[in-house]
């Protein structure tokens, strides 16, 4: 067996312990807790092994505040000879715990060959795997050329603007500085993720007129208007989207079509503060706001995606006297897909074959991740997602990551480093 593969196996206990330590830091986003603490853990570990460590706060970025500063850590190890740079990027934030857990979400429990906890799969196990793989490679190949970088970055779960987007704006992903990027998102250990679908978030507001609830005929109910909008979506827009398919290898199968999620809706009197025990006032709601999450395909044009929603609203307006509305853009991301013959793709594909004895499956993510910023802001196309973990476990109760999956993914990462920098 290759010495690198043996070295990763030998470090299994360290890999588990590091994953547990990362999971036990509750980096909840929102609001963005304990970001500096987890960056310090990564920075102190690698800094103590001779890596250069930079702590970067995304001051002024979306979400950054003195209460919840957006901290990122970038660690770099220089080789002995000139060469290219391979960068492993992982986000350190995790989503809310939610209901339904049977284990401590931040306990980092080791049981049944798995590490359990919020973020174990998405994606602290991937962060730990990249660290251990890079350390093992550097120990056995100390004369490597080029450089290795590992980053732990903020806010991927809320768009990445306080993390990778900020770093890309500062030049950290300039192709003259970094040539290969691997993002250890949990897409399964035998898959290479080439990119993601596009996304458009928007608010649709229907407008009405307030009046006394006992005399609704003197007002105009914005909630009823929104009901008509949702009915039109059900009758025309949802069937239209279900009929569209992409040639991109999106997983799971249902995401190969265009999709629309109704993310949130609110109309009428605001929700009262906790502790209020009174009744609501009797008013006709004069506004209703619907937040939509539209995922679109590489074959679709963003202008057409927006115009079909506008056309739908105009159909409703033509059928309802007094109907008024507004559509507000929240954000948009274009689809991204790295070519199958890109250097990092070919390298990881070969490493998967060596470790697992089978060809890697090429996939595309149904949702966006930080590749969007490396691609669009950094202008670096040679980027993929590859890491341990089962995609379907992300954001679920009783989240876990398999220890053997991390070991095998670590072997793939180490062998990829050997090919690119050895």
From TrEMBL:
Do the record's keywords include Nucleus? Answer: no
Assigned EC number: 3.5.1.18
Please state every residue range assigned to the domain named Peptidase M20 dimerisation. Answer: 195-315
**Cofactor(s) needed:** Zn(2+); Co(2+)
Top-level EC class as recorded in UniProt:
hydrolase
Could you say which protein family the record assigns here?
A: Belongs to the peptidase M20A family.
Q: Which NCBIfam families match?
A: DapE-ArgE, PRK13013.1
Q: What PANTHER family does the record tag this protein with?
A: ACETYLORNITHINE DEACETYLASE, ARGE_DAPE-RELATED DEACYLASE
Protein name per its UniProtKB record? Probable succinyl-diaminopimelate desuccinylase
Q: Which organism is it from?
A: Jannaschia ovalis
């Amino acid at each position: 067996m290759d010495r690198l593969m043996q070295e990763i196996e030998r470090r299994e206990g360290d890999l588990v312990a590091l994953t547990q330590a990362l999971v036990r830091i509750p980096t909840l986003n929102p609001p963005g807790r304990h970001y500096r603490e987890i960056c310090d853990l990564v920075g102190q570990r690698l800094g103590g092994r001779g890596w250069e460590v930079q702590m970067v706060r995304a001051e002024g970025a979306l979400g950054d505040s003195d209460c919840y500063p957006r901290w990122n850590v970038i660690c770099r190890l220089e080789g002995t000879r000139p060469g290219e740079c391979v960068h492993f990027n992982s986000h350190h934030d995790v989503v809310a715990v939610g209901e339904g857990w049977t284990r401590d979400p931040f306990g980092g429990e080791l049981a049944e060959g798995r590490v359990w906890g919020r973020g174990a799969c998405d994606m602290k196990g991937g962060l730990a795997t990249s660290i251990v793989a890079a350390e093992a490679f550097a120990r056995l190949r100390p004369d490597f050329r080029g450089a290795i970088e590992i980053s732990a970055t903020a806010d991927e779960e809320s768009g990445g603007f306080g993390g990778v987007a900020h770093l890309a704006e500062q030049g950290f992903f300039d192709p003259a500085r970094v040539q290969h990027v691997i993002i250890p998102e949990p897409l399964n250990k035998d898959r290479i993720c080439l990119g993601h679908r596009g996304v458009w978030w928007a608010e649709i507001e229907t407008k009405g007129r307030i009046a006394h609830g006992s005399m609704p005929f003197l007002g105009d109910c914005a909630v009823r208007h929104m009901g008509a909008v949702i009915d039109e979506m059900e009758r025309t827009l949802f069937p239209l989207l279900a009929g569209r398919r992409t040639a991109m290898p999106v997983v799971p199968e249902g995401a190969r079509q265009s999709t629309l999620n109704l993310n949130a809706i609110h109309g009428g009197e605001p929700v009262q503060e906790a502790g209020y025990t009174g009744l609501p006032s009797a008013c006709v709601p004069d506004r209703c706001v619907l937040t939509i999450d539209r995922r679109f395909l590489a074959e679709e044009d963003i202008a057409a995606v927006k115009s079909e929603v506008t056309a739908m609203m105009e159909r409703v307006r033509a059928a309802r006297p007094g109907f008024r509305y507004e559509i507000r853009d929240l954000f948009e991301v274009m689809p991204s897909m790295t070519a199958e013959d890109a250097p990092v793709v070919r390298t990881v594909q070969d490493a998967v074959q060596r470790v697992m004895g089978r060809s890697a499956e090429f996939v595309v993510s149904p949702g966006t991740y930080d590749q969007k910023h490396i691609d669009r802001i950094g202008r670096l196309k040679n980027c993929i997602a590859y890491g341990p973990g089962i995609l379907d476990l992300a954001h679920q109760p009783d989240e876990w990551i398999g220890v053997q999956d991390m070991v095998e993914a670590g072997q793939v990462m180490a062998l990829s480093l050997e090919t690119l920098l050895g």
